[in-house]
Design goal:
- About 0% of the residues lie in helices and about 45% in strands.
- It has one domain: 6 Propeller (Neuraminidase).
- The radius of gyration is 20 Å and the shape is globular.
- It contains one helix and 29 strands.
- With about 375 residues, the chain is mostly beta strands.
- A hairpin with a 7-residue loop joins strand 4 and strand 5.
Length: about 375
Protein backbone atom coordinates (compact mmCIF):
# COMPACT_ATOMS: atom_id res chain seq x y z
CA UNK A 1 0.00 0.00 0.00
CA UNK A 2 1.32 3.42 -0.89
CA UNK A 3 2.48 5.60 1.99
CA UNK A 4 0.77 8.94 2.53
CA UNK A 5 4.26 10.34 2.93
CA UNK A 6 4.83 10.33 -0.80
CA UNK A 7 1.35 9.78 -2.16
CA UNK A 8 1.63 10.23 -5.90
CA UNK A 9 -1.17 12.39 -7.22
CA UNK A 10 -0.84 12.50 -11.00
CA UNK A 11 -3.03 15.37 -12.16
CA UNK A 12 -3.89 15.71 -15.82
CA UNK A 13 -4.50 19.33 -16.76
CA UNK A 14 -7.53 19.62 -19.08
CA UNK A 15 -6.44 20.27 -22.61
CA UNK A 16 -2.75 19.70 -21.89
CA UNK A 17 -2.36 16.01 -22.72
CA UNK A 18 -4.42 15.00 -25.76
CA UNK A 19 -5.10 11.42 -26.76
CA UNK A 20 -1.79 10.34 -28.30
CA UNK A 21 -2.57 6.64 -28.63
CA UNK A 22 -2.58 6.76 -32.42
CA UNK A 23 0.12 9.37 -32.82
CA UNK A 24 3.80 8.62 -33.04
CA UNK A 25 5.72 10.33 -30.24
CA UNK A 26 8.15 12.95 -31.50
CA UNK A 27 11.82 12.41 -30.80
CA UNK A 28 14.25 15.01 -29.55
CA UNK A 29 16.24 16.48 -32.40
CA UNK A 30 19.93 15.91 -31.96
CA UNK A 31 22.94 17.68 -33.37
CA UNK A 32 24.86 15.43 -35.77
CA UNK A 33 23.35 12.35 -34.17
CA UNK A 34 25.55 9.77 -35.84
CA UNK A 35 28.68 11.82 -35.25
CA UNK A 36 27.91 12.15 -31.55
CA UNK A 37 27.44 8.40 -31.27
CA UNK A 38 30.74 7.71 -32.97
CA UNK A 39 32.48 10.11 -30.59
CA UNK A 40 30.75 8.65 -27.56
CA UNK A 41 33.15 7.97 -24.71
CA UNK A 42 30.87 6.65 -21.98
CA UNK A 43 27.16 6.11 -21.66
CA UNK A 44 26.78 6.35 -17.92
CA UNK A 45 28.17 8.01 -14.83
CA UNK A 46 26.38 5.70 -12.43
CA UNK A 47 28.71 4.81 -9.59
CA UNK A 48 29.25 1.11 -9.01
CA UNK A 49 31.07 1.56 -5.70
CA UNK A 50 31.69 4.73 -3.68
CA UNK A 51 34.98 4.91 -1.76
CA UNK A 52 34.55 5.77 1.90
CA UNK A 53 34.85 9.49 2.63
CA UNK A 54 37.47 8.59 5.25
CA UNK A 55 39.77 7.55 2.38
CA UNK A 56 40.08 11.15 1.16
CA UNK A 57 42.57 13.85 2.01
CA UNK A 58 40.99 16.52 4.20
CA UNK A 59 42.48 19.32 2.09
CA UNK A 60 41.70 19.84 -1.61
CA UNK A 61 44.58 19.37 -4.03
CA UNK A 62 43.04 21.90 -6.43
CA UNK A 63 40.89 24.98 -5.85
CA UNK A 64 39.11 26.76 -8.70
CA UNK A 65 38.19 30.30 -7.66
CA UNK A 66 39.91 33.18 -9.45
CA UNK A 67 39.29 32.70 -13.14
CA UNK A 68 41.23 33.80 -16.20
CA UNK A 69 39.65 33.39 -19.61
CA UNK A 70 41.23 33.86 -23.02
CA UNK A 71 38.70 34.60 -25.73
CA UNK A 72 39.54 32.24 -28.63
CA UNK A 73 38.24 34.73 -31.22
CA UNK A 74 39.92 37.93 -30.04
CA UNK A 75 42.77 36.50 -27.98
CA UNK A 76 41.87 38.93 -25.22
CA UNK A 77 42.36 37.71 -21.65
CA UNK A 78 39.86 38.71 -18.97
CA UNK A 79 39.69 38.04 -15.25
CA UNK A 80 36.40 36.95 -13.73
CA UNK A 81 34.90 35.01 -10.84
CA UNK A 82 31.85 32.94 -10.04
CA UNK A 83 28.81 34.31 -8.23
CA UNK A 84 27.28 31.44 -6.25
CA UNK A 85 28.40 28.07 -7.55
CA UNK A 86 25.28 25.93 -7.79
CA UNK A 87 25.08 22.56 -9.57
CA UNK A 88 28.11 20.90 -11.16
CA UNK A 89 28.64 17.80 -13.28
CA UNK A 90 31.42 15.93 -15.07
CA UNK A 91 30.99 15.34 -18.81
CA UNK A 92 31.09 11.83 -20.28
CA UNK A 93 34.23 12.60 -22.29
CA UNK A 94 37.80 11.42 -22.25
CA UNK A 95 38.90 14.73 -20.68
CA UNK A 96 36.03 14.74 -18.14
CA UNK A 97 35.49 18.49 -18.22
CA UNK A 98 33.59 20.08 -15.34
CA UNK A 99 30.42 22.05 -16.06
CA UNK A 100 29.38 24.51 -13.33
CA UNK A 101 26.28 26.67 -12.89
CA UNK A 102 27.48 30.23 -12.28
CA UNK A 103 24.12 31.17 -10.85
CA UNK A 104 24.04 34.95 -10.45
CA UNK A 105 26.24 35.56 -13.50
CA UNK A 106 23.60 33.77 -15.60
CA UNK A 107 26.02 31.45 -17.36
CA UNK A 108 27.57 27.99 -17.48
CA UNK A 109 31.31 27.48 -17.18
CA UNK A 110 33.49 24.63 -18.47
CA UNK A 111 36.72 23.76 -16.65
CA UNK A 112 39.66 21.45 -17.25
CA UNK A 113 39.51 18.82 -14.49
CA UNK A 114 42.85 17.12 -15.17
CA UNK A 115 45.49 19.82 -14.81
CA UNK A 116 45.11 23.27 -13.32
CA UNK A 117 41.34 23.77 -13.48
CA UNK A 118 41.65 26.18 -16.40
CA UNK A 119 38.48 27.91 -17.57
CA UNK A 120 37.89 26.51 -21.06
CA UNK A 121 34.57 27.98 -22.19
CA UNK A 122 31.77 30.30 -21.10
CA UNK A 123 28.18 29.62 -22.16
CA UNK A 124 25.71 32.50 -22.13
CA UNK A 125 22.35 33.21 -23.72
CA UNK A 126 19.03 32.14 -22.24
CA UNK A 127 20.69 30.88 -19.06
CA UNK A 128 19.14 33.02 -16.35
CA UNK A 129 20.07 31.73 -12.87
CA UNK A 130 21.03 28.15 -13.80
CA UNK A 131 20.51 25.75 -10.90
CA UNK A 132 21.73 22.27 -11.81
CA UNK A 133 23.24 20.33 -14.71
CA UNK A 134 23.62 16.69 -15.63
CA UNK A 135 25.04 14.96 -18.75
CA UNK A 136 22.78 13.36 -21.31
CA UNK A 137 23.82 9.70 -21.60
CA UNK A 138 25.35 8.72 -24.96
CA UNK A 139 25.72 12.35 -26.08
CA UNK A 140 28.91 13.75 -24.70
CA UNK A 141 28.26 17.36 -25.76
CA UNK A 142 24.68 17.58 -24.47
CA UNK A 143 23.48 18.39 -20.96
CA UNK A 144 20.20 18.98 -19.14
CA UNK A 145 19.86 22.26 -17.24
CA UNK A 146 17.32 23.40 -14.66
CA UNK A 147 16.77 27.14 -14.44
CA UNK A 148 14.07 29.77 -13.90
CA UNK A 149 11.06 27.42 -13.59
CA UNK A 150 12.11 25.27 -16.55
CA UNK A 151 14.21 22.33 -17.71
CA UNK A 152 16.19 22.43 -20.95
CA UNK A 153 18.35 20.22 -23.14
CA UNK A 154 21.45 22.17 -24.21
CA UNK A 155 24.10 21.41 -26.82
CA UNK A 156 27.54 22.59 -25.70
CA UNK A 157 29.13 22.27 -29.12
CA UNK A 158 26.49 24.36 -30.88
CA UNK A 159 25.89 26.58 -27.83
CA UNK A 160 22.17 26.31 -28.37
CA UNK A 161 19.05 24.86 -26.74
CA UNK A 162 17.53 21.77 -28.32
CA UNK A 163 14.36 21.59 -26.27
CA UNK A 164 12.73 23.27 -23.29
CA UNK A 165 9.87 22.49 -20.93
CA UNK A 166 8.35 25.18 -18.71
CA UNK A 167 8.16 28.95 -18.90
CA UNK A 168 9.56 31.92 -16.96
CA UNK A 169 6.54 31.92 -14.63
CA UNK A 170 6.08 29.34 -11.88
CA UNK A 171 3.18 26.92 -11.87
CA UNK A 172 1.97 23.54 -10.66
CA UNK A 173 0.71 21.79 -13.81
CA UNK A 174 2.50 18.88 -15.47
CA UNK A 175 4.50 21.28 -17.63
CA UNK A 176 4.93 24.04 -15.05
CA UNK A 177 7.48 24.17 -12.24
CA UNK A 178 8.53 26.30 -9.29
CA UNK A 179 12.30 26.81 -9.03
CA UNK A 180 13.44 23.29 -10.01
CA UNK A 181 16.92 22.27 -8.88
CA UNK A 182 18.45 18.77 -8.81
CA UNK A 183 18.28 16.62 -11.93
CA UNK A 184 19.53 13.19 -12.99
CA UNK A 185 19.02 10.89 -16.00
CA UNK A 186 18.56 7.13 -15.92
CA UNK A 187 21.00 5.82 -18.57
CA UNK A 188 19.00 2.61 -19.04
CA UNK A 189 15.92 4.31 -20.49
CA UNK A 190 16.77 8.03 -20.66
CA UNK A 191 14.08 9.02 -18.15
CA UNK A 192 14.69 12.36 -16.43
CA UNK A 193 14.19 12.75 -12.67
CA UNK A 194 13.86 16.35 -11.47
CA UNK A 195 13.42 18.08 -8.11
CA UNK A 196 10.57 20.57 -8.52
CA UNK A 197 11.74 22.22 -5.32
CA UNK A 198 9.10 24.75 -4.35
CA UNK A 199 6.29 22.48 -5.55
CA UNK A 200 7.68 19.92 -3.06
CA UNK A 201 7.73 17.09 -5.58
CA UNK A 202 9.82 14.85 -7.82
CA UNK A 203 8.79 14.77 -11.49
CA UNK A 204 9.76 12.12 -14.05
CA UNK A 205 9.85 12.72 -17.81
CA UNK A 206 10.66 10.72 -20.90
CA UNK A 207 13.75 11.71 -22.95
CA UNK A 208 11.55 13.90 -25.18
CA UNK A 209 10.12 15.75 -22.15
CA UNK A 210 6.79 13.95 -22.01
CA UNK A 211 5.24 13.62 -18.56
CA UNK A 212 5.20 9.86 -17.82
CA UNK A 213 2.52 10.02 -15.09
CA UNK A 214 5.04 9.54 -12.30
CA UNK A 215 5.62 12.16 -9.66
CA UNK A 216 5.56 12.16 -5.90
CA UNK A 217 5.32 14.73 -3.14
CA UNK A 218 7.62 14.96 -0.12
CA UNK A 219 6.45 15.53 3.43
CA UNK A 220 7.91 14.90 6.86
CA UNK A 221 7.59 11.43 8.38
CA UNK A 222 4.02 10.90 9.67
CA UNK A 223 3.37 14.64 9.27
CA UNK A 224 1.86 14.88 5.84
CA UNK A 225 0.72 18.45 6.47
CA UNK A 226 4.39 19.52 6.58
CA UNK A 227 5.90 19.54 3.11
CA UNK A 228 9.65 19.57 2.51
CA UNK A 229 11.70 20.89 -0.41
CA UNK A 230 13.69 18.39 -2.50
CA UNK A 231 17.13 19.78 -3.33
CA UNK A 232 19.28 17.23 -5.19
CA UNK A 233 18.70 13.72 -6.50
CA UNK A 234 20.73 10.65 -7.50
CA UNK A 235 19.89 7.18 -8.79
CA UNK A 236 21.69 3.86 -9.15
CA UNK A 237 21.36 0.76 -11.31
CA UNK A 238 19.46 -1.14 -8.61
CA UNK A 239 16.11 0.64 -8.75
CA UNK A 240 16.98 3.15 -6.03
CA UNK A 241 16.57 6.91 -5.95
CA UNK A 242 17.87 9.19 -3.15
CA UNK A 243 16.72 12.75 -2.57
CA UNK A 244 18.09 15.41 -0.22
CA UNK A 245 15.49 17.74 1.23
CA UNK A 246 14.87 20.31 3.96
CA UNK A 247 12.41 22.90 5.22
CA UNK A 248 14.82 25.23 6.99
CA UNK A 249 14.66 26.61 9.61
CA UNK A 250 11.84 24.37 10.82
CA UNK A 251 13.28 21.10 9.54
CA UNK A 252 17.03 20.65 9.21
CA UNK A 253 16.79 18.11 6.43
CA UNK A 254 16.88 14.47 5.44
CA UNK A 255 17.88 11.93 2.84
CA UNK A 256 14.86 10.06 1.47
CA UNK A 257 15.30 6.71 -0.28
CA UNK A 258 12.69 5.69 -2.86
CA UNK A 259 12.39 3.12 -5.58
CA UNK A 260 12.14 4.57 -9.08
CA UNK A 261 8.34 4.43 -8.96
CA UNK A 262 8.34 6.80 -5.99
CA UNK A 263 7.57 4.36 -3.19
CA UNK A 264 9.32 5.28 0.05
CA UNK A 265 11.90 2.84 1.41
CA UNK A 266 13.71 4.74 4.16
CA UNK A 267 14.34 8.17 5.70
CA UNK A 268 17.55 9.42 7.29
CA UNK A 269 17.11 12.50 9.51
CA UNK A 270 17.31 13.87 13.06
CA UNK A 271 13.81 12.82 14.03
CA UNK A 272 12.89 9.49 12.46
CA UNK A 273 13.26 6.64 14.94
CA UNK A 274 10.73 4.07 13.81
CA UNK A 275 11.77 1.19 11.56
CA UNK A 276 12.79 1.31 8.75
CA UNK A 277 14.09 4.85 9.30
CA UNK A 278 17.49 5.80 10.73
CA UNK A 279 19.01 8.73 12.55
CA UNK A 280 21.47 10.96 10.69
CA UNK A 281 22.49 14.44 11.74
CA UNK A 282 21.92 16.38 8.56
CA UNK A 283 21.83 20.18 8.28
CA UNK A 284 20.36 21.28 4.95
CA UNK A 285 21.80 18.48 2.79
CA UNK A 286 22.33 19.38 -0.87
CA UNK A 287 24.38 17.44 -3.45
CA UNK A 288 24.32 13.65 -3.19
CA UNK A 289 26.02 10.63 -4.80
CA UNK A 290 24.71 7.03 -4.75
CA UNK A 291 26.33 3.71 -5.66
CA UNK A 292 24.89 0.32 -6.61
CA UNK A 293 25.25 -0.99 -3.04
CA UNK A 294 22.94 1.73 -1.74
CA UNK A 295 25.77 3.68 -0.11
CA UNK A 296 25.35 7.43 -0.39
CA UNK A 297 27.41 10.57 0.24
CA UNK A 298 25.88 14.00 0.73
CA UNK A 299 27.19 17.47 1.49
CA UNK A 300 25.59 19.69 4.15
CA UNK A 301 25.25 23.35 3.28
CA UNK A 302 24.71 24.61 6.86
CA UNK A 303 26.91 22.47 9.10
CA UNK A 304 30.50 23.63 9.73
CA UNK A 305 31.26 20.52 11.81
CA UNK A 306 30.01 17.84 9.42
CA UNK A 307 30.32 19.09 5.88
CA UNK A 308 29.97 15.65 4.31
CA UNK A 309 27.90 12.75 5.61
CA UNK A 310 27.98 9.21 4.24
CA UNK A 311 25.95 6.07 4.77
CA UNK A 312 27.61 2.69 4.19
CA UNK A 313 26.76 -0.97 4.63
CA UNK A 314 29.31 -2.78 6.78
CA UNK A 315 29.64 -6.50 7.38
CA UNK A 316 29.06 -7.43 11.00
CA UNK A 317 29.13 -11.08 12.03
CA UNK A 318 26.70 -12.93 9.80
CA UNK A 319 24.85 -9.84 8.66
CA UNK A 320 25.10 -6.24 7.54
CA UNK A 321 24.64 -3.01 9.47
CA UNK A 322 24.63 0.67 8.59
CA UNK A 323 27.40 3.08 9.44
CA UNK A 324 26.89 6.87 9.31
CA UNK A 325 30.16 8.81 9.05
CA UNK A 326 30.65 12.57 9.44
CA UNK A 327 33.58 14.32 7.73
CA UNK A 328 34.82 17.88 8.16
CA UNK A 329 36.85 20.14 5.89
CA UNK A 330 37.76 23.63 7.06
CA UNK A 331 38.01 24.96 3.50
CA UNK A 332 34.33 24.33 2.83
CA UNK A 333 32.11 27.25 3.89
CA UNK A 334 28.86 26.67 2.01
CA UNK A 335 29.18 23.45 -0.01
CA UNK A 336 26.24 22.64 -2.22
CA UNK A 337 27.13 20.46 -5.23
CA UNK A 338 28.85 17.08 -5.60
CA UNK A 339 30.34 15.24 -8.57
CA UNK A 340 32.86 12.45 -9.08
CA UNK A 341 35.31 11.53 -11.82
CA UNK A 342 36.04 8.01 -13.03
CA UNK A 343 39.20 7.84 -10.88
CA UNK A 344 37.03 8.80 -7.87
CA UNK A 345 38.32 12.34 -7.61
CA UNK A 346 35.66 14.06 -5.50
CA UNK A 347 34.47 17.48 -6.71
CA UNK A 348 32.64 19.88 -4.39
CA UNK A 349 31.02 23.13 -5.46
CA UNK A 350 31.01 25.74 -2.68
CA UNK A 351 28.15 28.19 -3.12
CA UNK A 352 29.25 30.71 -0.51
CA UNK A 353 32.95 30.71 -1.42
CA UNK A 354 32.21 30.83 -5.18
CA UNK A 355 34.68 27.99 -5.61
CA UNK A 356 35.13 24.42 -6.78
CA UNK A 357 37.34 22.05 -4.77
CA UNK A 358 38.87 18.75 -5.95
CA UNK A 359 39.84 16.05 -3.43
CA UNK A 360 41.97 12.94 -3.98
CA UNK A 361 42.01 9.72 -2.03
CA UNK A 362 44.94 8.97 0.26
CA UNK A 363 47.53 7.04 -1.73
CA UNK A 364 47.38 4.09 0.68
CA UNK A 365 43.58 3.91 0.39
CA UNK A 366 43.30 4.14 -3.39
CA UNK A 367 41.81 0.75 -4.14
CA UNK A 368 39.89 -0.85 -6.95
CA UNK A 369 36.72 1.24 -6.74
CA UNK A 370 35.51 2.25 -10.16
CA UNK A 371 32.71 4.04 -11.93
CA UNK A 372 30.44 2.01 -14.15
CA UNK A 373 31.08 2.95 -17.77
Amino acid sequence: MESNLTKRRPSIVPGYLPDLSNIQAPSVKTVKDEEDRSKEYSSSTLIESLPSITNYETKPYLTIRKLQYENPQTGQTTHTSMAHTYGICVLNTEAEEIIACDHYNNRLLMFNSNDNGKLLQIFRGDLATPECVTPRPNYRQQIYVTKAHSISLYDLEKKTFIQKLGIEESGHANNRFNSPTGIVVDPDNGEIYMCDTWNHRICVFSPDFRYVNRRWYLTRWEQTQHKVKPNFIAINGKNQCVVTCDDAPNYRGAVYVFDKMGYIQKIYDHESRKYPNSEAKLHVPHGILLDDQGNWLTVCYSDPESRLVERREKSHGNGEHELITYWCCKELKGPSALAMKRDHTLIVGDRDENSIYLFKQNAAEHGNHHLHI
